[in-house]
User: Fold unspecific monooxygenase from Chrysodeixis includens.
Amino acid sequence: MLTAITQLLLGVILICLSAFYLFSRHRYGYWKKRGVPQVEEPVLFFGNLPFLMRKSFFDAVSEWTKKYKNDYFGMYFGWTPALVVNSQELAKHVLVKDFDSFQNRFSYSGLDDDPLGSLNLFSVKNPIWGQMRTDISPMFTSARLKGFANLMNTNSTELVKRVQTDFIDNKEPVDFKKLFLMYTSDTVAYTVFGIRVSVLKEGMSPLWSITCNMLKWTFWRGLEFTLIFFVPVVAAIFKFKFFSKEATDYVKKLFWDVVEERKRTGLTNDTDLVNLLLKLKANLKLPAESGTDLADNLMLAQAAVFILGSIETSSTTLSYCIHELSHHPEEQEKLYREVSKALEASGKDILDYNDLLEIKYLTACIHETLRKYPPVQLLDRACNKTFKWKDLTVDAGTPVYINVLGIHYNEKVYPQPDEWRPERFINSSDNDNNDFNFLPFGEGPRFCIGKRYGMTQIRCALAQLITKYRFEPDSPYKVVSDPYSVLLTPKHDTKTKIFARS
Assistant:
């Protein structure tokens, strides 16, 4: 009897293993059957992601880019076949021309389990996305940006003072990444919540503690975030969260505390995101059965993603730009001369929004930094209906990733792409995507809505720092990227020697 049961169990196990093997073999042959070039043989369970948490996405995508020069190639994220696009022409179709076939992102968004993660403007799906995009756009008009630039300049002045007291006076090299996190945190605190307490000046602010929590990339937090973006089926099973529980609770508390304070005092701030979101809530056209929770969560989700996006990407770009300037003294001095010339022509102590836009070399330095170090290397879209381009057919449900790093490192467009050369962008503007060869903010209807805000934030800090200080390297030129972070960020401190200009 026991032998018969044992044999039956072994038979069942053998059948299951055989079925699993055949399923895997069939699944991992998806791209070959369609004549699409495919990355090296996928690994069981992981597909082409066995490097996770050991190597950064920046490094992995860089290796794929050097190896696969086709317009597109196939990969497997877990068992899911994914298409990676190297061609700027095909990218133009996915992002703009055929947007109807690629309206949503592929990343996991569990509305019931993670409303802040699923309802923010980055993740939320159509039709809610379309309405939210329209309603939030007034936050970033030129008039508002000019006002934000004044605030950013005030915070940049505090940044300059902090560098003087902590590093110049003590004759120590500086890790700009932490200082830039403080600077962007102070700016976002006011932009979102109307809070004028500065961590650069006072040493603490209501937003600083949650900033540190949101941007702390541990092994497990990095794995959770990576699976949300690239293996959403696993993220759904384990109910992973876009924002940590601590970050979610803190944002909720801070948001409602600000709302209650305004009700109590009767004071409002017409320029911050809280005020805009409250007006948005009053005019939202949602299904009657959705209740107030959906409207509240929509507001909170926008505040949370604005904090994450505005602080991390701007601070990282500033860090890489200072790093490159420290290793390129001629370019550094050219930038110093251009900013100084603009100051002299304006007759002001600090350049305003319009003045900063006129400094072409400042824009060129920032754009070249974003080309070489794009914060997001792969832009995800989910194909929602069959799409055809030349000999390629993309089935509905297939994730498509625009290889931003591959496009930015195309030697035909950017000769010697590993070199940092601001002159590549000497005549570019913030609206110039170089015919879809420059995509650090994405493009099309779902491009980063905070692009001009981020660029202004970077310009203000860089312009003030370059006129006050000279930079020299105190760390190797090649920057090792953090394998735990989906967004590009340095693994180690990038120390810079800094000297006051006479």
